[in-house]
């Protein structure tokens, strides 16, 4: 099969992904399913891993590696023990490739927190390829109403946005600021609106603020590098917020979010980053969030199938992965780029 393979960590401008022909993976375990990939989303996490930003977190744990963890394809073969998924089904794979299914987290339905979880495209081979083999326990069926390129982003930005919005305790009459309106944020804007929240989109790029407004944001405020300056502008334009969600991968943005919520407010952090200033006496809550469980995934796909969630994508060929990631690095991708083999 053809795949875009990373042999060594390097800046994306050096085109570190190479198009190679590799042996097509086969079914190894009873519950495995063999999937012909139809689409794979291009995630900022892929970029961080490729450039070595996440070496200290042990990602990737294996090289060479095929990146990509927002995968949709059609099941072509199943193992002899498979019963949940059939040949011909269209399914998606999220970053959580598998977990032990035995520990306390797994038993509590929080398998995305499992210490023995495998991560798609980081600890196991991912979706910048023509085929992949996964366990039927960790794939999610996709209804016919969503095509594969639009379904793929549900499997990382989608579930990330869904979980983070839930964590922000959305409700009618409560405001939520969404810091960062890209692949994840453009979905969070819509999901928070569906919950009745007043949504304030915050981004550096005018293009992203316009997109957020088009997707239903009640207000859009331009992000500024000085947290103090930004909060001043926010207070004038909108007032302090009940809650905030941070998807912009910067310590500065996290700091600004903490300062943007009222006393007693809630900040949901969905990115890797430090929290530089925190005053206990403001009684603020900071909550971390990471992808989501298999149940969250199924719930989101169901919601998306109803047709109210607009997934904004652009599609590219598999061989163009380096160029697409380079554009993502420069914030030139409007919402989500998807590779189609
Ligand atoms: Zn991702
Ligand atoms: Zn576990």
Overall description:
The structure is a single chain. With 341 residues, this protein is an alpha/beta fold. It folds into 2 domains: 2-155 and 292-340, Medium-chain alcohol dehydrogenases, catalytic domain (Quinone Oxidoreductase, Chain A, domain 1, Alpha-Beta Complex), CATH 3.90.180.10; 158-288, Rossmann fold. The protein is built from 10 helices and 17 strands. The protein has helices spanning 44-51, 104-107, 148-151, 157-167, 185-194, 206-214, 227-237, 251-260, 294-305, 321-329, and strands spanning 2-6, 17-21, 32-42, 71-78, 90-93, 96-98, 118-119, 131-135, 139-141, 175-179, 198-203, 219-222, 241-246, 261-269, 285-288, 313-317, 336-340. Helix 4 packs across helix 5 (185-194) and helix 7 (227-237) runs parallel beside helix 8 (251-260). Bound molecules: zinc ion (2 copies). Residues 43, 45, 69-70, 95, 156 line the site of one zinc ion. The site of one zinc ion (ZN) has 9 residues, from helix 2.
Structural category: alpha/beta
Question: What number is the mean pLDDT?
Answer: 96
Q: Return Rg in Å.
A: 20 Å
Spans of at least 5 consecutive residues with low confidence: none
CATH superfamily of the largest domain: Medium-chain alcohol dehydrogenases, catalytic domain
| Beta-strand share of residues | 25-35%
Query: In angstroms, what separates the terminal alpha carbons?
Result: 10 Å
The CATH architecture of the largest domain comes to: Alpha-Beta Complex
Order of helices and strands: EEEHEEEHEEEHHEHEHEHEHEEHEHE
What's the multimeric state?
A: single chain
**CATH class placement of the largest domain:** Alpha Beta
Largest sheet: 7 strands, mixed
Bound compounds, each kind once, are: zinc ion
Shape: globular
Please report the total strand number as a whole number: 17
Query: How many distinct helices?
Result: 10
**CATH level-3 fold name of the largest domain:** Quinone Oxidoreductase, Chain A, domain 1
- What is the number of independent domains? 2
């Amino acid at each position: 099969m053809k795949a875009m393979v990373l042999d060594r960590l390097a800046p994306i401008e050096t085109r570190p992904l190479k198009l190679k022909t590799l042996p097509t993976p086969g079914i190894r375990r009873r519950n495995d399913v063999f999937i012909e990939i139809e689409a794979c989303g291009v995630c900022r996490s892929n970029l961080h891993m490729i450039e070595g930003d996440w070496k200290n977190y042990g990602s990737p744990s294996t090289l060479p590696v095929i990146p990509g963890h927002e995968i949709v394809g059609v099941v072509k073969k199943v193992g002899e023990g498979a019963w949940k998924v059939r040949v011909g089904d269209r399914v998606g794979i999220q970053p959580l490739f598998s977990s032990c299914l035995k520990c306390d987290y797994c038993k509590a339905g929080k398998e995305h927190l499992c210490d023995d979880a495998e991560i798609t495209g980081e600890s196991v081979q991912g979706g910048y390829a023509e085929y992949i083999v996964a366990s039927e326990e960790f794939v999610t069926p996709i209804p016919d109403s969503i095509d594969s390129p639009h379904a793929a982003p549900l499997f990382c930005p989608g579930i990330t946005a869904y979980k983070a919005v839930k964590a922000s305790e959305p409700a009618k009459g409560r405001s939520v600021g969404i810091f960062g309106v890209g692949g994840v944020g453009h979905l969070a804007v819509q999901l928070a609106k569906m919950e009745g929240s007043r949504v304030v989109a915050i981004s550096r790029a005018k293009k992203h603020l316009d997109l957020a407004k088009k997707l239903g944001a009640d207000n859009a405020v331009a992000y500024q590098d000085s947290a103090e300056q930004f909060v001043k502008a926010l207070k004038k334009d909108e007032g302090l917020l009940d809650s905030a969600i941070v998807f912009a991968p910067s310590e500065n943005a996290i700091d600004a979010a903490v300062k943007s919520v009222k006393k007693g407010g809630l900040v949901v952090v969905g990115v890797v980053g430090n929290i530089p200033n925190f005053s206990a006496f403001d009684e603020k809550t900071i909550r971390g969030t990471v992808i989501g469980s298999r149940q969250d995934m199924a719930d989101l796909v169901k919601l998306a199938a109803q047709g109210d969630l607009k997934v904004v994508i652009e599609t590219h060929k598999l061989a163009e992965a380096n160029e697409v990631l380079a554009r993502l690095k420069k914030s030139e991708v409007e919402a989500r780029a998807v590779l189609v083999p």
